[in-house]
């Protein structure tokens, strides 16, 4: 009997976390209602006057205004099933004309927005939290006979017919695992005055919609020390020790990144890992992996926190008047407070890459949540000149799509993981005692929440020692995330979620003659067969069935080495 598998857990999440790589929440949309502001401890706390409620009967064709807070009330009670529950106010709007204010994001092409996605915030860089699966709407625009609809960069008013995901739905958006679709849509720039009446009976004050306030070009200046008590309040952690702030010169930051990259030295050394990653297709031949990782890290790093959490070193010329820079400083302060208050031993006591990515997803998800909460309180907006906020570091090799996908997983999946597991600070704190140990647990939440439903099958480091005359130079674990990136082979990983989701374990081995073997274990025969079918399309690898129906081997490299392994592995 095969074990119950967390079928489709994380598939919906793939929309927000794997395919929306560059989405951020740097802009808190504003309500089209009178707003007063109260300054409290450096924060701007909005207060609202309630808008008048229309009680007159309405025509069914007259759209009702909804917002993303209402959409966020949808729940997926069982990650094993594609079953969504909706609050009554939202459920009643199925098939009705609605309107919502949001931001456009391309689905297929920026040149043709006939089909697009609507999000609660602007599309920007990868520093901040992506939207959850309840915050993405698939929109099909009405054909007005005027050619391809253009991309609208400003907040937009979208009016159309709402369709909610139901079990068995054949709507194209639902088959692609979007839970919200708006058809026959009219999309126009939102000017703050053209909004229809809000749908009655649901939340309206605390999460205003895009609209009537212009984004400030810059924030008031603030010292890092003055941010500490604010971040402590937002994250609900004590300031147990004063935090010292020391500016870094760009060259000093580069040196610090180099030290931390070197600390990741893989078993067998960097040279062997480079060759293995080249064989896997993660880096091009001859590329310096360590140097590439340094460059990739510098793209998203403004400083570091020491282990005790009482010293932060950051880029000297960082402009905290720039919203993007302010949020990065908030994250550094949040990490310092986490280190002061929590035991991170379980988070950092990992050796395999897959476990490292999974553990870091928890920390980066926590930091992104904190930055978003600060952003909501302080009313930060998209920075019109984000390039001015950070120093440019040149001279580093461009990272391949595959390597970027692999290294970005903690930043992509971490916020989603916390969204579904815990949002209360106390509940988040408890997660650090038992962080996820595999990327499968981050991608498929049921595997983490109910470990009895899924048992990983780790493979020993010496699994391939006797397969050839000489043992391999090095071995490593790709994990579900690594195999997902391998399957995508430079394409969108979201298209391969199903083929990788039955993962139970893997380990690769690399030999001096360039031969590379990957042994993979799957939850059942069907999962193994689905992976085998897609893996067989890679021309640079050969897929083999194992003696057990839930085992698949992948081979690449020298002809003699492959022949030896095929003979040993033949069922």
- Main sheet specs: 5 strands, mixed, barrel
- Multimer state: single chain
User: Structurally, how many domains make up the residues?
Assistant: 3
Radius of gyration based on Cα positions: 25 Å
**Relative helix content:** 25-40%
Q: Please provide the count of β strands.
A: 16
Task: Give the N-to-C terminal Cα separation.
Answer: 21 Å
Principal-axis shape equals globular
Compute the number of helices: 20
Q: Which structural class matches the secondary elements? A: alpha+beta
Instruction: Order the strands across the largest sheet as they lie in space.
Output: 4-5-6-8-7
Low-confidence stretches: 1-60, 123-129, 195-217, 381-389
- Strand residue percentage: 15-25%
Mean pLDDT: 80
Question: What's the helix and strand layout?
Answer:
Elements: H1 13-17, E1 35-40, E2 43-48, E3 64-65, H2 68-71, H3 88-91, E4 97-106, E5 115-119, E6 137-141, E7 156-164, H4 172-175, E8 180-189, H5 224-235, E9 244-248, H6 250-262, H7 270-280, H8 289-298, E10 303-305, E11 311-315, H9 323-341, H10 345-348, H11 353-378, H12 401-407, H13 409-421, H14 425-431, H15 439-443, H16 445-449, E12 474-476, H17 479-488, H18 497-500, E13 503-510, E14 516-522, H19 525-535, E15 542-545, E16 551-556, H20 559-569
Parallel strand pairs: 3-4, 6-8, 9-11
Antiparallel strand pairs: 1-2, 4-5, 4-7, 5-6, 7-8, 10-11, 12-13, 13-14, 14-16, 15-16
Helix pairs in contact: 5-9, 6-8, 9-11, 11-13, 12-17
């Amino acid at each position: 009997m095969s074990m119950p598998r967390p079928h489709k857990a994380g598939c919906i999440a793939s929309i927000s976390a794997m395919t929306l790589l560059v989405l951020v929440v740097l802009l808190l949309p504003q309500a089209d209602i009178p707003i007063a502001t109260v300054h409290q401890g450096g924060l701007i706390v909005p207060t609202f006057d309630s808008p008048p409620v229309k009680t007159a009967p309405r025509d069914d064709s007259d759209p009702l205004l909804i917002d993303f807070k209402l959409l966020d009330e949808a729940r997926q009670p069982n990650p094993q099933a594609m079953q969504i529950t909706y609050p009554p106010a939202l459920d009643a709007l199925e098939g009705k004309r609605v309107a919502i204010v949001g931001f456009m994001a391309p689905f297929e092409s920026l040149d043709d927005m006939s089909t697009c996605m609507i999000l609660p915030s602007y599309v920007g860089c990868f520093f901040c939290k992506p939207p959850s699966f309840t915050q993405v709407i698939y929109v099909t625009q009405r054909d007005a006979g005027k050619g391809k609809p253009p991309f609208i960069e400003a907040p937009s008013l979208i009016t159309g017919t709402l369709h909610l995901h139901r079990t068995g739905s054949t709507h194209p958006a639902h088959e692609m695992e979007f839970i919200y679709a708006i058809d026959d849509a009219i999309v126009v720039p939102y000017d703050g005055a053209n909004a229809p009446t809000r749908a009655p009976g649901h939340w309206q004050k605390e999460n205003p919609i895009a609209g009537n306030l212009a984004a400030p070009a810059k924030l008031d200046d603030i010292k890092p020390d003055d941010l500490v008590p604010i971040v402590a309040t937002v994250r609900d952690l004590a300031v147990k020790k004063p935090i010292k702030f020391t500016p870094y010169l760009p060259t000093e930051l580069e040196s610090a990144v180099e030290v931390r990259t070197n600390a990741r030295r893989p078993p067998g050394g960097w040279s062997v890992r480079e060759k293995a990653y080249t064989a896997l297709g993660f880096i091009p031949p001859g590329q310096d992996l360590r140097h590439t990782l340094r460059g990739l890290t510098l793209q998203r790093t403004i400083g570091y926190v020491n282990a005790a959490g009482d010293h932060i070193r950051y880029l000297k010329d960082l402009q905290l008047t720039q919203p993007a820079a302010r949020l990065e400083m908030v994250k550094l302060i949040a990490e310092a407070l986490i280190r002061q208050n929590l035991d991170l031993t379980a988070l950092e006591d990992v050796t395999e890459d897959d476990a490292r990515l999974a553990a870091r997803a928890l920390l980066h998800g926590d930091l992104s949540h904190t930055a978003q909460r600060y952003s909501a309180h302080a009313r930060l907006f998209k920075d019109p000149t984000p390039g001015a906020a950070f120093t440019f570091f040149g001279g580093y090799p461009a990272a391949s799509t595959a390597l970027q996908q692999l290294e970005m997983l903690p930043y992509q999946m971490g916020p989603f993981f916390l969204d579904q597991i815990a949002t209360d600070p106390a509940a988040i704190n408890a997660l650090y005692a038992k962080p996820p140990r595999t990327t499968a647990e981050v991608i498929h939440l049921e595997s983490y929440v109910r470990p009895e439903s899924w048992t990983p099958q780790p493979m020993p480091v010496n699994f391939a020692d006797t397969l050839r005359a000489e043992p391999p130079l090095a071995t490593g674990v790709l994990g579900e995330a690594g195999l997902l990136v391998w399957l995508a082979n430079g394409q969108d990983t979201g298209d391969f979620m199903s083929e990788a989701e039955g993962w139970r374990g893997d380990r690769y081995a690399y030999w001096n003659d360039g031969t590379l073997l990957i042994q993979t274990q799957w939850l059942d025969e069907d999962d193994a067969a689905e992976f085998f079918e897609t893996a067989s399309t890679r021309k640079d690898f050969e897929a083999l069935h194992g003696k057990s129906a839930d085992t698949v081997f992948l081979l690449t490299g020298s002809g003699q080495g492959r022949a030896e392994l095929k003979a040993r592995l033949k069922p």
